[in-house]
Amino acid sequence: MTTTYSSGVAGSRPPASDVLLEIRDLRTHFHVMDGVVKAVDGVSFGIRQGETLGVVGESGCGKSVTALTIMRLLDTPPAEIDPDSEIWFNGRNLLTLSEEQMRAVRGNDIAMIFQEPMTSLNPVYTVGDQIAEAVSLHQRLSPKAAWEKAVDSLKAVGINTPERRAKQYPHELSGGMRQRVMIAMALSCDPKLLIADEPTTARDVTNQAQILELIRKVQDETGAALMLITHDLGVVAETVKDVVVMYAGRVVETGTVDDVLMSPKHPYTEGLIASIPSKEKRGERLNVIRGTVPNPFNMPVGCNFAPRCPYRFGPCADHDPRIEDASPPDVACWLYTPAPGSPVPPRTRARSTGSTT
Amino acid sequence: MSKYIIRRVIGLIPLLFGIILVSFFLMKLAPGGPQAQFNQNPRVTEAQIDVWLKRWCLERESTPLSVIREFGGWLGVYNCTTESLLSESGGLNFLPAALGGGDNGILHGDLGLSIKAGRPVTDMITERIPATLLLTITALVIWVFLAVVLGVIAAVKRYSVFDQTLTFFSYVFYSLPTFWLGLMFIFVFAVLLRWLPPQGIVTPREWPPFNSENYWAAFGAAPLDAILDIGKHMILPVLVLVLVSIAADSRFVRASMLETLNQDYVRTARAKGLPKRKVYMKHAFRNAMLPVVTNVGLELPFLFSGAIVTETIFSWQGMGLLFITGVNDRDYFILMGLILITSTLVVVFNLVADVVYAVVDPRIRYD
Amino acid sequence: MSEYNRALEPTAQPAPRVAAAEEEGGGGGDYEVSLESLNQWQLAWRRFKRHRLALIGAGVLLVMVSMAILGPIIWPYDPTRIPGVSQPGGDPPTLESFDRIFGTDFGGRSVLQFIVVGARISVAVGFFTALIATTIGVTIGALAGYFGGRVDNVLMRFVDLLLAIPFLFVILVAARFFGGGDPVTLILIFGLLSWPGLSRLVRALFLSLREADFVQAARAVGVSDLRITFRHILPNTLGPVVVSSTLILANAIVLEAFVSFLNFGIRATDVSWGNALSNSKGFLLQGNWWWPFFPGMVLAMTVIAVNFLGDGLRDALDPRSKES
C-alpha cells in the first residue's frame, strides 16, 4: 500500500523501518535561460521493503526527473532541489548525504535500469568490464572475482554462454541482449531498490514481455523493491502492486493497481485508461485526452489539468487542489476535496464513462 | 588488423597517383614553362635550350604526346636518354635499377634537378626534412597535449572562470594572423627584450649551418650546448604554432568532451556509484578522444602550411623556406617535389590517424 | 549555450506548442498558450540580436566595409609619392599629425593611409573568395550528396585529393605563376581552391537530410526531386554553410595578407593590408614595430569580427537553438 504524506507533518523524522524509500514534498526545478521549469513540484510517495511501485505519466510529467533526483544524478545547476524536500532511504535522508556517501548508495543500494540500452552502455568497453566495474567498486573484490561475479549476473538474466558474452562490446549484442546486460549490471551488487526507467519502451512487444518477466523474476528472487517508471498502463497492470500517477510535476492519484485501474478517481487517470485501445472498443473512436501537457514555463494558476479536464468546474481555474487535502488523500482533484472556503466535498462525481478495463 | 592496414594502403594508391598528377600539371600549366627564363637572354641559343631541356627531361613543344612523355619521364616509366620505355641497360625503365630498370623519375626516388642550384631535388629536400619535422612535430606534440588537457578541464568545469578565460583566449589566438603574431613575437622577445634570437635554427658564427656535416661534428663535440642553442631558437616559432593551433583544438576537445558527458552511458557510469573523476577519465575521456583523433589527422596538412608561415617569418631553414625560395625562383622541380612529398606525408599521417582510431574504437571493423 | 537544454534531456520536455489547447474547440481556451507567431527569419533575427558579440562583430565589419568603399575615394593613394622620413626605417607614431598617428613606413608613407586605402582590396578578396567558394562548394556538395553513388564517389575522391595537398603550397604556386599582382586573379585563385572543405560539409548535410523524416514525407506525397532539394534540403543547410562561409572569408583575408606579405600577392602599386606590411620585417629588427603592428591589428580585428558574426549567425539560423 502506498502512503501519502502531508508535507511538514513528519518533517525530518525517518519513516517506519519497513518503509524503504519515502519521498516527502520533492521539488526539483530547472533554471534555464527562458525561466524556471518546475519539473517536479511537490511530489510525495513511498515504497516498502521488497514491494513494487509503478510511476505512470506522460513524457514530461516529471517521473524520470524524480528517479534521477533520488539517485542525485542531476547536475546542480541547472537543476535545483528544494532544501525542504526529503528523500528517506533506509533510514537516511539521501539529500543530506555527502557526495562520497551518496556514491556508496548508487549502484550498491539503489540501482537503475535506463531506457535506452543502446546508448546507456559505453561503446568502448566490454559489457563484462562494465558490470565488473560496479562490483569491484562496491564489494572490494579482486578484478578476477569481480569478473566472475559479472559473468554470474549475466547468467542470472538468462544470457547463454555468459563467459563469451562478457568479453563482447555492446555493439556486438542485440537490443534485447543489451537490455539484459543493463539488468545484470543493476543486479550485480544486490541492490535494495531497483529503479527501472521505461525499461521496455524501446522494445517490441515480445521482447517487452520477456524483459518485464525477467525484471519481475529477479526482483522476486533478490527481494529488492522495484520502482517501475513507465507511460504504459498495460505494463503497470502486469508488473506492480501499487501505482502513482503523475501529471505536470505532481502526483495526481495513488493507490493499488487494482483500485486505480478499475476505478480511477482523477479525470486524468480516467482519460489515460480510456485512451488504451482494447478488443471491446474495436471499431469505436478511441478516447483521447484533449489538448497537451501545459507549457512548462507557463503553468496554469489553478489545477494543472484544468485546461484539459472534462469535469472542470468552479474552483479548478483559480485554485490548486492538493492531494493531502482530499479525503481519503489519494487524489488531487477538487471533485474529492472540500472546495476552498467550504468544509464539504462538492459532490460525488457522476460517472458517465464507467470502468473501462 | 594488419589486413585492415593493407586494405587501407591499397586504397591510397589512386590518391597518391592523383597527387603526382596534380603536382605535375600544376607546373605544366604555368605560363611559359621552365625555359621561359631564357626568353630575355639573347646569348642563349636555341640549341643550348634544347640541351638544357633534355637534361631536365622536358620538351620544347607541348603536344599531348610530349606531355605524356614528360610525365612518364618524371614518373620514371619513360627514359629520356633512350627516348623509350626501356632503360640504357635494355630493361623496362620502371623496374628498379638492379633489375635492369632506369634511375630517373619518382619510382626511382629521383625528383629531378633543381633548376637554380643544379642539384638533385631529392637531396635538397631530404636535407631540409629534419629541420621542418623538428619544428612541426614538437609543436604538434605540445599543442595536442595542451589542447586535450585544457579542453577537458574546460568541459568538466563548464562556465567556470577557467572555461571563460580559455574561451576568450582561443577566440583571440584563433583570429590572429600567424605570420603577424610571429612578427610581433620577434619584436617583443628578440628586439625589445633580447631574450631570444629573432631567427634561424642555430646561432650563426658559433655553430655551422644546421644539418651540415660540420654541424653534426660540432654537435657530437658538445651535444648539450647544441641542443640548448637549437632550443633557444625553437621557442618562438613553436610558441606561435602552438598558440594558434591550441586555440581551435581546445575548443574542439571541449565540445567533444561536453557531447560525451551528456551521453547516457556517462549517466550509467555515475549511477553505478563511480566517482566523478573516474567517470570523466575512464568513461567520457576515451569516447571524447575519438573525434579528436580524426580531427588531428585532418589538421595535418595545415601543419605544413603553418611551417611555411613560421619558417619564413623565423628564417627557419626547413622545407617551407625551401618552398618559398623555389616559388621565388620558379624552380619547378623543387616545387613539384615538395608538393609531392608533403602531400604524401599528409596521406600517410592520415592513415596513421585512421589506424589509431580503429584501435581505440572497437566498433570499427577490420575486415 | 544549448548545453543548458541538453541538461534537461532526462525529462524529455515536449517543445511548447502554440495554441495547442484549441484542438477541439471550447473548454481549454482560457489557458491557451499564447506565443507570438513569428516566421523563421524574424525568429533568427531575434536570436541574433541577443548575441552581443555578434552585434559588435557586425558593427566592426560595417566600419571595415565602409572604409573599403570610401577609403580610396576620400584619401586617394599615390604609390609614387614618397614623402621621405626624418629617421631611417620610418617615423614613429605621433599625435601631432593625423596621417602619422600610426607612424610611417621607411619611405614616410602613412601607415594609417595603408589601412584606410588597403581595406578595399582586403575586404573584397575576403568577400568574393567566400562567394565563389561557397557557390562551388554548395553545388559540388549538393550534387554528391543528392545523387550519391558514382557521382558522389568521383566528386569526393577529387575533394580528398585537394584536401591532401597542403593548401598554402598550391595557393603560393598559383599566385606566383598565374597571379601577376592582380586582385581579381588572386580572388579567383583563392575562390577556386577554398571550396573542398565546404563541399564535404554540404554533402554530409545532404546525406543526413535526404533520410530525414520530413524529406521522406515530402517524397511520399509526390514532391519533385528538384523541389525537395531547393525547398526542403538546402534551407536546412543554411546555418552550417553560412558559418563555413564566414570562416572562408576570414581565412581569405589573412591569406591575402600573407601572400602579399611574401610579395607573391597584390602588386606593389596597389595597397592591401597584406602588402602594406610586406617589407616591414627587415625594419622590425631595427625596432620599427608600428609599421607591421597597426595593419596587423586591423586584420586581426576584422577576423575576430567575422568569427563573432559567424557564431551569431550559427545560433540565429539554427532553429533548434532556443537561447542566444
Description:
The complex is a heterotrimer of chains A (357), B (367) and C (324). In chain A, 29% of the residues lie in helices and 20% in strands. Chain A has 11 helices and 11 strands. In chain A, helix 8 links the parallel strand 8 and strand 9. Chain A is globular and about 65 Å long. Helix content of chain B is 68%, strand content 0%. Chain B is built from 12 helices and no strands. Chain B starts with a helix and ends in a 7-residue tail after the last helix. Chain C is an all-alpha fold and 324 residues long. Chain C is elongated and about 80 Å long. The N terminus of chain C is likely disordered. Chains in contact: A-B, A-C, B-C. Chains B and C meet through helix 1, helix 5, helix 6, helix 10 and helix 11 of B and helix 5, helix 6, helix 10, helix 12 and helix 13 of C.
Helix-strand blueprint:
The complex is a heterotrimer of chains A (357), B (367) and C (324).
Chain A: E1 19-32, E2 35-48, E3 52-56, H1 63-70, E4 79-81, E5 86-89, E6 92-93, H2 99-105, E7 110-113, H3 117-120, H4 127-139, H5 143-156, H6 162-166, H7 175-187, E8 193-197, H8 205-222, E9 225-230, H9 233-239, E10 242-247, E11 250-256, H10 257-262, H11 267-274
Helix pairs in contact in A: 4-5, 4-7, 5-7, 7-8
Chain B: H1 2-28, H2 46-55, H3 64-75, H4 121-156, H5 161-175, H6 178-192, H7 213-221, H8 223-261, H9 264-271, H10 276-313, H11 319-329, H12 332-360
Helix pairs in contact in B: 1-3, 1-12, 4-5, 4-8, 4-10, 4-12, 5-8, 6-8, 6-10, 7-8, 8-10, 9-10, 10-11, 10-12, 11-12
Chain C: H1 3-6, H2 40-49, H3 52-74, H4 111-147, H5 149-164, H6 167-179, H7 183-193, H8 196-210, H9 213-220, H10 225-261, H11 273-276, H12 280-284, H13 290-317
Helix pairs in contact in C: 2-13, 3-4, 3-13, 4-5, 4-7, 4-8, 4-10, 4-13, 5-8, 6-7, 8-10, 9-10, 10-13
